[in-house]
Amino acid sequence: MVEGVGDFWDANSITYLSGKRITIRPVALENNKIVPFRWMTSRNWYDAEHTKNFTYILVKDEISVTRPDINRDSIQAYLALHPPEKRVSYGNYAIYVYDNGTMMN
């Protein structure tokens, strides 16, 4: 699991701290769809060539009113419509794993 998506703050800090060995792009939820979070990001990150490699959604596994773009509560409707292949827990994160590129379609 090298490329995925998550909320703005986790995406940027994890990508930076990993030296880009792990790439997480910031996204938001709109009408039960994952969409690019267009603040301090590049359009290239979200083109078809890159999104086909996204294999997971990283979500902080706690209630968060300070992270309205994507959080434990807001992701539930999306997961009901787009069930992941599996869910993995890591620390205080939930990681929802998908086949390559299927989560942003």
List the helices and strands and how they pair.
Layout: E1 3-6, H1 8-17, E2 23-30, E3 33-36, H2 48-51, E4 56-60, H3 75-81, E5 86-90, E6 93-97
Parallel strand pairs: 1-2, 1-4
Antiparallel strand pairs: 2-3, 4-6, 5-6
Quick structural gist:
With 105 residues, the protein is of the alpha/beta class. The chain has helices at 8-17, 48-51, 75-81, and strands at residues 3-6, 23-30, 33-36, 56-60, 86-90, 93-97. The model has no long low-confidence stretch (mean pLDDT 86).
Rg of Cα set: 12 Å
**Total discrete domains:** 1
Indicate the low-confidence ranges by residue numbers: none
How far do the termini sit from each other?
19 Å
Can you give the helix content as a percent range? Answer: 10-25%
Tally the beta strands: 6
Computed structural class: alpha/beta
Number of helices: 3
Which geometry do the CA atoms define? Answer: globular
- Describe the sheet with the most strands: 6 strands, mixed
Q: On the 0-100 scale, what is the average pLDDT? A: 86
Q: What is the chains' assembly state?
A: single chain
Question: How would you characterize this protein structure?
Answer:
The protein has 105 residues and is α/β, with parallel strands linked by helices. It has one domain (3-97). It is 20% helix and 30% strand. The chain has helices at residues 8-17, 48-51, 75-81; strands at 3-6, 23-30, 33-36, 56-60, 86-90, 93-97. The protein has a six-stranded mixed beta sheet with strand order 3-2-1-4-6-5, with helices on one face. The radius of gyration is 12 Å and the shape is globular. The two termini are 19 Å apart. The relative contact order is 0.22.
